[in-house]
Write a structure and sequence with these properties.
Blueprint lengths: L5 E4 L3 E5 L5 E6 L2 E4 L4 E4 L3 H18 L6 E4 L4 E5 L2 E2 L2 E8 L3 H6 L6 E11 L8 E2 L1 H6 L5 H23 L3 E15 L2 E7 L7 E5 L9 H4 L5 H11 L9 H11 L3
Antiparallel strand pairs: 1-2, 2-3, 3-7, 4-5, 6-7, 8-12, 9-10, 9-12, 10-11, 12-13, 12-14
């Protein structure tokens, strides 16, 4: 069976034409990048794990009324999603100081912030995804005020839910990235959650040890990236205890040429 037409390829995913109008197939790669793709590598099995983790989280968010692009998982690396017009803004939600905010403001990494902070970044790889203010968004028409209200409200709700979800399995949600899109219905659109939520776009620390269970292990050459992603999936109940069954199955299929 021939592969469907490719629509877009990003750093961690490929989008293909979907089986029905208004749908796409989202394929998760093992490729890993950092520092605006200046550092590149692979994390074995990452795409399989991120597909499962993102499916799980998007399903739970849908159950509490957060609208998302997710329809269903198709196989180990692909999921069927609604086609949206991506808002060119990355939304970063911070609960604990880490990464760029520590460098920018001289706050010691690991410091609990007095309140949750929502930051916005303009999605442009050539510019290095610069940080922007709501005034920039309004001035350049990247999103309307009503859309930004919806985005901020959903970001807060998602943060509240995920903080509790991860705390329940011994993980501290330090910060995470969200992307949103416009779902068009005739001449009207509404904002829904898009992209993915996985250890690629979240900082996840073990609550007891502060061990990093996310892509910072790749960024900082800590090693053990695949094991960290597996640990998150295992704690979420998506991978059998003491096994890498999902990854072993994919390896077996690759060896058989299927």
């Amino acid at each position: 069976m021939s592969r469907r037409r490719q629509i877009y390829e990003g750093k961690a995913k490929i989008l293909y034409e979907g089986p029905e109008p208004g749908t796409l197939i989202q394929y998760f790669k093992d490729d890993a990048t950092a520092f605006n793709a200046q550092k590149k590598g692979t994390i074995s099995g990452k795409g399989v794990l991120n597909n499962r983790i993102s499916e799980h989280i998007f399903t739970l968010l849908g159950n509490i009324g957060v609208p998302t692009h997710f329809i269903r998982r198709l196989n180990m690396r692909e999921q069927l999603i609604r086609q949206v017009e991506i808002v060119p803004i990355e939304v970063v939600v911070r609960n604990v100081a880490a990464g760029s905010i520590s460098k920018r403001l001289g706050i010691e990494e690991g410091t609990q912030l007095p309140r949750t902070i929502i930051e916005y970044y303009y999605k442009d790889d050539a510019l290095g995804d610069p940080m922007i203010a709501e005034e920039h968004i309004a001035c350049f028409g990247w999103a309307s005020q009503d859309e930004m209200n919806d985005i901020a409200d959903m970001a807060v709700r998602i943060n509240d839910f995920l903080s509790g979800l991860f705390a329940g399995i011994g993980i501290r949600l330090v910060d995470f990235k969200l992307e949103f899109g416009r779902l068009w219905e005739n001449d009207f659109s509404r904002i829904i959650l898009a992209d993915e939520i996985s250890p690629d776009g979240c900082r996840l620390w073990d609550m007891a040890t502060n061990e990093k269970l996310d892509k910072d292990r790749f960024r900082r050459d800590l090693g053990g990236e695949a094991e960290a992603y597996q640990d998150v999936a295992r704690r979420l109940g998506l991978l059998p205890e003491g096994e890498t069954a999902v990854l072993d199955l994919e390896t077996h299929r690759k060896k058989r040429g299927k």
